[in-house]
Amino acid sequence: MKKYLISIILIIVGAGIYYSGLYTYFIRTDIQEELPSSSGSVQATQTIATGNFVEVDFIHKGSGQANLVKVNGKNILRFENFNVVSGPDLYVYLSKSPNPTGGIKSLGDFIDLGLLKGTSGNQNYEINADTTGYATAIVWCKRYGVLFTYAVMR
């Protein structure tokens, strides 16, 4: 009887860890993407703005640099030497808010660039929208509504 009770408890705890996404805190992925090459001339690549990722709190933190770059007329958000704490359901946003906090409303108007590709490395996110006024790169956990890190670019 005691063995069955322990087995049931372990199954419940394991299912809870799986469905809550807590296991993702232990998964690291490194992405090393090159910046898309400009066709022909060096002048076809232009850095519009740059900023550094910051710690949000003692659990949610990131480092590295965010760059808003224009390559052959396309806007790209590029993370360089990037590193962030792992978590479930992490997304990349480009926001107009210069001071995001913990709530989704603090992000203001933002563009969803999709799932975070990796927890470290160099990554590119193509932006298919007008970037005027959007100067904050954000890593956001959609599942729990938690800000992991951000970089205000100037």
List the helices and strands and how they pair.
Elements: H1 2-20, E1 30-32, E2 45-52, E3 62-71, E4 74-84, E5 90-95, E6 110-115, E7 120-127, E8 136-141, E9 146-152
Parallel strand pairs: 1-7
Antiparallel strand pairs: 2-3, 3-4, 4-7, 5-6, 5-8, 8-9
In short:
This protein is mostly beta strands. It is built from 1 helix and 9 strands, in the order αβββββββββ. The protein starts with a helix and ends with a strand.
Instruction: Determine the strand fraction and express it as a percent band.
Output: 35-45%
Tally the helices. Answer: 1
Helix/strand order: HEEEEEEEEE
| C-alpha termini separation | 64 Å
> How many individual β-strands?
9
Average pLDDT over all residues: 87
* Bulk shape: elongated
Q: Specify the biggest β-sheet.
A: 5 strands, mixed
Structure classification: mainly beta
* Helical amount: 10-25%
The radius of gyration over CA amounts to 19 Å
Strand order of the largest sheet: 1-7-4-3-2
* Low-pLDDT windows of residues: none
What is the multimeric organization of the chains shown? single chain
